[in-house]
Amino acid sequence: MTVAPPEQLAVPVIDTHCHLDIHDQHLHGGALPDPDTLIELAASVGVTRIVQIGCDLESARLSIALARTRPSLVVGVGLHPNEAPRIFVDEGREALEAAYLAIEEMAADDVVRAVGETGLDYFRTEEELRPIQQESFRRHIGIAKKLNKTLVIHDRESHQDVIDILMQEGAPQRVVFHCFSGDAAMARLCAEQGWFISFAGVVTFKPAQELRDAAAVVPDELILVETDAPYLTPAPHRGKPNASYLMPHTVRTLAQVRGTDESALGALLWANAQRAFGIW
């Protein structure tokens, strides 16, 4: 733990997107913290359930292993939008096809509630490799529909293409826009489709007024909250490694933005997370 935990939440809340396996080891050098310590810290402030996301084959396998012995966890598995082009370039088409099959096999596990994060990321992948991202996104949509799993979407600088592909392929029954980065107009469009919209610590950043405007218009039944830990640490600890125990800062900002109290919002967030990912 690098900062003091915030005051405990008034009611329990679920972190709907976390990466316990890549905490500050990748961000700040340091040893990987014990996942059980992070889970206990989260519970101590009222974050009593976590959706652990595996973004590549190794991380997906580790995530499933963690969840099998930790009842507070469920899992999402997928190839991150930047992982699919990496496999294609470094290992070739055959390896990428094998990776899709492995994700489908893992997604059938009972502890796996979601396929993803998948989607598009035009910030880090050059234009000539974007068709591989789009292909991967379509394949993940198909897996989610085949297995009746929730689809968790990563969307960075690719809003229109993400929406277009979802519409073309036909969205699964449950869709979550993880770490939503659109504006109020996009939030309304997603809400019209019944897609869940999840907010991370970015909503606490001073320059993020457009995102707070989006958070204000999301219908009660579609709003979610997450950390995306170890990334996107909320104010006042921006720049330090994130973890689920810091999520109360984001919850309290959302309550303020939406003109409600912490308990009422927390109850909504809990119910919505269980509608999005099932009860556990």
Description:
The chain is α/β, with parallel strands linked by helices. The chain has a single domain, classed as Metal-dependent hydrolases (TIM Barrel, Alpha-Beta Barrel), CATH 3.20.20. The protein is built from eleven helices and eight strands. The chain has helices at 24-28, 35-44, 57-68, 83-91, 93-107, 130-147, 159-169, 184-192, 209-217, 247-258, 262-277, and strands at 13-18, 47-54, 73-77, 112-121, 150-156, 175-177, 196-199, 223-225. Strands 1-2-3-4-5-6-7-8 form an eight-stranded parallel sheet. Strand 4 (112-121), helix 6 and strand 5 form a beta-alpha-beta unit. Helix 3 runs parallel beside helix 5 and helix 4 (83-91) crosses helix 5 (93-107). The longest helix has 18 residues, at 130-147. The chain is globular, with a radius of gyration of 17 Å. The chain starts with 12 loop residues before the first strand and ends with a helix. 50% of the residues are buried.
CATH topology: the name is: TIM Barrel
Q: Pick out the low-confidence regions.
A: none
Structurally, the number of domains stands at 1
The fraction of residues assigned to DSSP E strands is 15-25%
Give the % helix.
40-55%
Look at the structure and give the mean pLDDT: 96
Largest sheet: 8 strands, parallel
CATH architecture: Alpha-Beta Barrel
Number of strands: 8
Q: What is the string of SSEs from the N terminus onward?
A: EHHEHEHHEHEHEHEHEHH
Task: Report the C-alpha radius of gyration, rounded.
Answer: 17 Å
User: Overall 3D geometry?
Assistant: globular
Please name the fourth-level CATH homologous superfamily: Metal-dependent hydrolases
Strand order of the largest sheet: 1-2-3-4-5-6-7-8
The number of helical runs is: 11
| Ends distance | 26 Å
Main structural class:
alpha/beta
Q: Please identify the top-level CATH class.
A: Alpha Beta
